[in-house]
């Protein structure tokens, strides 16, 4: 999925090219386009919608356009026209957040989602690793062997493909501070991480798998229809992809079980 | 529950215990009280271990600017129109 970002600020453009290196390409026909304007720290992203920096992110439909707001950015996006505008600080995390939210909205209608999970490709298949903070997403990413391709240690991108799912790399890095590879592979399993005294894999019941998957799916919009679609997507994912609990000792031997 | 840092967009997916701490963090109630009154009775955990885990959790969130750790009660923020 190609998204065009336009800015008149050369320094910010360079920042984006550096930040998203590996995911930047020239495309004459982007699917979505955003113009970006920058404001100084003393300004508000949208004077008519003044927000405090600590306020929660808000995502809602307003006048047929999506309105995305946080203290450091305000974006409007016409999803039907494929065009939008982002007004933000120079903080690169603002554009990260705006793009993540846009992708959650796009994927919701396509049966996919963003999930707070690490992911990697090994042997041509993708594996997702989800869990509460501290469960080991960063650890298992750091321990990945040389024949594994890390897609992300923070936010996994899951798309529906016919009867299955694909995981794609994302430029959204977590504590490992390593951008994922711009590659994709069919999802072979979702592992729910838990550190323990030995390495083992346990089955997870379907309802528990759905509940735990939903806990990790990113979705911000106050929109009952899309929330319902995301719920259905989680249920369908669990029907088609094995979900297992991976209890592991934090050393490289854990990857002997991931093939 | 999932929370996102407005500072660096880091995500935290919270387990049940962490969710209780997050929701009880009102700027006035000491962490030790939250552990003693909310965590220990509800989750039947060892108080000393729960206290250590709770401290680690709030310190993690503090490092990302999500929680403020203070020795004193934190005054409530002014209403939006006064900001």
Describe this structure in words.
The complex is a heterodimer of chains A (259) and B (83). Chain A has 259 residues and is α+β, with helices and mostly antiparallel strands. Chain A has two domains: 3-108, no CATH class; 113-257, Rossmann fold. Chain A is 24% helix and 36% strand. Chain A has five helices and 15 strands. Chain A has helices at 10-19, 92-108, 137-142, 206-216, 224-240; strands at residues 3-7, 32-38, 58-62, 65-70, 73-78, 83-88, 113-122, 125-130, 148-152, 155-161, 164-168, 184-195, 200-203, 217-218, 243-248. In chain A, α1 (10-19) links the parallel β1 and β2. The longest helix of chain A is centred in the middle third of the chain and has 17 residues, at 92-108. The two termini of chain A are 28 Å apart. The N and C termini of chain B lie far apart (28 Å). Chain B contains three helices and two strands. A two-stranded antiparallel sheet of chain B has the order 1-2. Chain B has helices spanning 16-24, 31-43, 47-63, and strands at residues 2-4, 11-13. With 83 residues, chain B is mainly α. The radius of gyration of chain B is 14 Å and the shape is globular. Chain B has one domain (2-70): Arc Repressor Mutant, subunit A. In chain B, β1 (2-4) and β2 form a beta hairpin. At the A-B interface, α2 of A face β2 of B.
Give a nutshell description of this structure.
The complex is a heterodimer of chains A (259) and B (83). By secondary structure, chain A is α+β, with helices and mostly antiparallel strands.
């Amino acid at each position: 999925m190609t998204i065009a970002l336009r800015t008149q600020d050369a320094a910010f453009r360079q920042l984006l090219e550096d930040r998203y290196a590996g995911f930047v390409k020239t495309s004459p026909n982007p699917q979505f386009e955003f113009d970006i304007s920058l404001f100084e720290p003393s300004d508000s992203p949208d004077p008519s919608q003044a927000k405090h920096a600590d306020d929660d992110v808000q995502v809602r439909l307003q006048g047929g356009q999506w309105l995305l707001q946080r203290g450091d950015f305000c974006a409007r996006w016409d999803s039907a026209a494929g065009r939008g505008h982002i007004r933000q600080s120079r903080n690169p995390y603002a554009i990260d957040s705006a793009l993540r939210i846009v992708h959650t909205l796009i994927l919701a209608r396509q049966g996919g989602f963003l999930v707070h999970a690490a992911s990697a490709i090994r042997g041509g298949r993708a594996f997702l690793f989800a869990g509460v903070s501290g469960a080991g997403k960063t650890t298992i990413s750091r321990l990945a062997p040389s024949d594994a391709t890390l897609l992300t240690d923070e936010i996994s991108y899951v798309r529906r493909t016919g009867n299955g799912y694909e995981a794609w790399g994302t430029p959204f890095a977590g504590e490992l501070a390593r951008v994922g590879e711009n590659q994709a592979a069919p999802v072979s399993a979702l592992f729910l991480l838990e550190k323990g005294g030995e390495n083992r894999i346990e089955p997870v019941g379907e309802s528990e798998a759905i509940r735990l998957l939903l806990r990790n799916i990113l979705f911000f919009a106050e929109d009952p229809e899309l929330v319902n679609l995301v719920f259905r997507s989680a249920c369908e994912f669990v029907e088609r992809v094995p979900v297992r609990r991976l209890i592991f000792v934090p050393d490289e031997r854990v990857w002997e079980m991931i093939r | 529950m999932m929370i996102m840092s407005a500072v660096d967009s880091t995500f935290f997916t919270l387990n049940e215990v962490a969710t209780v701490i997050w929701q009880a963090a009102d700027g006035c109630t000491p962490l030790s009280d939250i552990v003693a009154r909310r965590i220990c009775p509800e989750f039947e955990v060892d108080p000393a271990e729960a206290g250590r885990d709770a401290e680690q959790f709030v310190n993690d969130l503090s490092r990302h600017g999500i929680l403020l750790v203070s020795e004193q009660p934190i005054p409530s923020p002014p209403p939006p129109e006064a900001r």
